[in-house]
């Protein structure tokens, strides 16, 4: 009886060893597969960085190789664009009604009613209320149209 138990114990040990070896091979295969995926990702990222650097290098060489007339023309075009933008901003902020518009916007953002704004910000209550409402609409159209 003891002999049979001993033999069956050895058989179980050998089967367990065999299963452990299979599991180790599967885990080793999964680790190799993950390493291959990681190396592919690193290669792809490094390739895209290289291509990006090369394209920037070509653009810089093209700019350096272009004639002075081309560069000067591009500079003047950019200068004209920025000058127009700055003049538009300056004309809006230098307008005499612009501070009133800013107060109106603050009041509107605070949730004040049109009546309150006309009476307290524009100081046009009573008989002048209709004129004040018209002025409010004019202010909003003028300055919101320029900012968009």
Description:
The structure is a single chain. 87% of the residues lie in helices and 0% in strands. It has 5 helices and no strands. Helix 3 (98-109) packs across helix 5 (129-147) and helix 4 crosses helix 5 (129-147). It is elongated.
Structural class: mainly alpha
Helix content estimate: over 70%
Q: How much of the sequence is in beta strands?
A: under 5%
Low-confidence stretches: none
Radius of gyration: 39 Å
Most strands sheet:
none
Overview features:
148 residues; mainly alpha; 87% helix
Secondary-structure map:
Layout: H1 2-65, H2 68-93, H3 98-109, H4 114-121, H5 129-147
Helix pairs in contact: 3-5, 4-5
Briefly characterize the structure:
This protein has 148 residues and is mostly helical. The protein is 87% helix and 0% strand.
């Amino acid at each position: 009886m003891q002999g049979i138990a001993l033999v069956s114990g050895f058989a179980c040990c050998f089967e367990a060893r065999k299963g452990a070896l299979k599991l180790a091979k599967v885990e080793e295969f999964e680790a190799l597969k993950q390493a291959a995926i990681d190396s592919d990702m690193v290669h792809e990222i490094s390739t895209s960085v290289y291509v990006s650097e090369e394209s920037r290098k070509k653009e810089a060489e093209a700019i350096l190789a272009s004639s002075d007339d081309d560069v000067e023309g591009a500079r003047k075009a950019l200068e004209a664009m920025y000058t127009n933008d700055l003049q538009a901003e300056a004309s809006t902020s230098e307008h005499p009604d612009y501070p009133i518009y800013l107060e109106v916007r603050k009041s509107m953002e605070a949730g004040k009613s049109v009546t309150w704004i006309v009476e307290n910000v524009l100081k046009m209550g009573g008989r002048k209320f209709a004129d004040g409402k018209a002025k409010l609409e004019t202010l909003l159209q003028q300055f919101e149209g320029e900012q968009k």
